[in-house]
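## tool: complex_structure
## caller: assistant
## args:
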Amino acid sequence: MRRIRIIPRLDIKAPNLIKGVHLEGLRVLGEPSAFAKKYYESGADELLYMDTVASLYGRNSILEIIKSTASDIFIPLTVGGGIRSAENAKEALRAGADKIALNTAAIARPELISEIADNFGNQCVVVSIEAKQTAPGKWEAYTDNGREKTGIDVIDWVKKVQNLGAGEILITSVDMEGTKKGFDIKLIKAVCENAAIPVIASGGMGKIEHLEELIQTTNVDAVAIANVLHYNTLTLQQIREKFDRNKFELRTA
Amino acid sequence: MNKKVTIIDYGLGNLFSVARAFESLGANVCITSNASEIAQAGHLILPGVGAFSKGMQELESRGFIEVIRKYAVSGKPLMGICLGMQMLFETGEENGEHNGLGIIKGRVTKIPAEKNAKIPHIGWAKIIKNGNPKILEGIGEEHSFYFVHSYRGICENPSDLAAFAIYGENKITASVEKGNVFGCQFHPEKSAESGLQICRNFLEL
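## result:
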């Protein structure tokens, strides 16, 4: 039976959990570790921390936030934002991360994917892709929370990062992110069709039907959810209850 | 609980999560790359992520292979996690054929890819016990564990298999147990309460 992972996504502007629309226009929601603890206790499969300001060091940096949450959370934690070298990756792992999400630094220097994979294993490297549609069936990869163009075609990039040793792909639709209007199904479908490695879909979930549509029409392996969880529109428990247990298997918490 | 757990540091992967899980249970954790500390451990963990060949190379270059083999026959508890479990086997097929520690009889082979079972296998799965292994005390069929791997161990001796999981059409060795030697393909340190229960079981041995 197909298994789907449900991953609360916490966008962080230290010291706060924030949420925007199209990855911009950010609002402060509260302390990330309190949200993380709540999601852990209600059976999240993993957690995803994305540092929106890419500040690894100093007081109130993402590393400090990881440290303060990882000591009592025993599910996989992925951290992205600001990791530019294998040394940065090691520091994030030391602080409590289990996987590293790479976007800007991997676009600038794709070999970084292999360097981290060689040191810590492929399972440690999640390539995060921020995608904006440019034409029907065409998407461009962006960096810096959907602000900077790269000129790179998303599907070409998906194919390339797998060969470099990525273990998973996190695909975020900048167009749908924060809108609560549903996932960009065509984008995610295209990514899944070109990825032999697991794909995590992100951006746009507003109600349970969006999730059902996503997993029925694409081959996605996991879904990252922010808005509806942070604003308590849906709880992990409700999401779990609404799944058809005859078709999908979710972790029982 | 005031027990000491020694985690072998051989330069590969992320030891910190394993350390934190045992610390949360009140254990005194020692991460070491010192052969005599390994030999003298009371409870020894061989962690690891990454490739079998690289893992064995790193153990060999530090002179740990004999140390771990000797420890295993001492009767004191040893647990391999993920790659650490795979290296307990005799042979691994990742990046060509390589010798393992040879503590558990059998081979480590690639999981066959299927349409609904991508490689690497990443995610939570339930496990089905084989008999009543000590390491899985208190674990039932309702408990899920977090897996991330592309290879699986195949026990030559069926009684060494402690539990398996189903992935696609394949049976995956989830846990092994042979006397005082244990292994988990999944990550007990990342498997929430069910995983901590296994860490607790290990500490109580």
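## assistant note: Chain B is about 25% helix and 30% strand. The helical segments of chain B are 16-24, 35-39, 52-61, 64-73, 83-86, 192-203. Handing back to user.
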